[in-house]
Amino acid sequence: MVYLQVTFTLEAQDVARFKSYYAEVFLPVILEHGLAPVGIFETLVGRAGEITELWRFESVSDYETKWKALSSDPRVHEILEVTGPMVKDERFKLLSSVDFVPAP
Questions:
Q1: Rg over CA atoms, the chain
Q2: Which of 9, 42, 67, 76 is the most exposed, fewest CB within 10 Å of its CB?
Q3: DSSP helix/strand/coil, 82
Q4: Cα–Cα distance between 8 and 15 in angstroms, integer?
Q5: Contact between 4 and 41 (Cβ < 8 Å)
């Protein structure tokens, strides 16, 4: 298994609008492409307006295939036109689990 961690920051005034739009519009498109969420988290203590997504993939190849398909979906480009201006910082990491702790 490999995991994609996406962390981004929103301005405080955009958080509620972003979460609503993400849940209603973006998440269904993501799920259609077979991405498997481990969880989507809001930072409670620390950087305000920070959201972290964690996605599970069977392999790097699985990640590459699904990510390419998602990125090529014209609906995603329309969605990013709405959400893009709200996102102030975005970071991606592809992770693998250590062998001494079971992965989720």
A1: 14
A2: 42
A3: helix
A4: 11
A5: no
Residue 65: half-sphere exposure toward Cβ, Cα within 13 Å: 8
d(CA 73, CA 81): 13
6 with 56: CB under 8 angstroms?
Answer: no
Q: Which amino acid is at 78?
A: E
- pLDDT tens sequence across 49-63: 999 999 999 999 999
DSSP class of residue 77? H
d(CA 42, CA 49) in angstroms, rounded, equals 8
**Tens-digit pLDDT profile for residues 11-47:** 989 999 999 999 999 999 999 999 999 999 999 988 8
Instruction: Measure the CA–CA gap between 75 and 77, rounded to whole angstroms.
Output: 5
| CA dist., res. 103 & res. 95, Å (int) | 11
- Helix/strand/coil (H/E/C) assignment for every residue in 2-15: EEEEEEEEECHHHH
- pTM over 0.85? The answer is yes
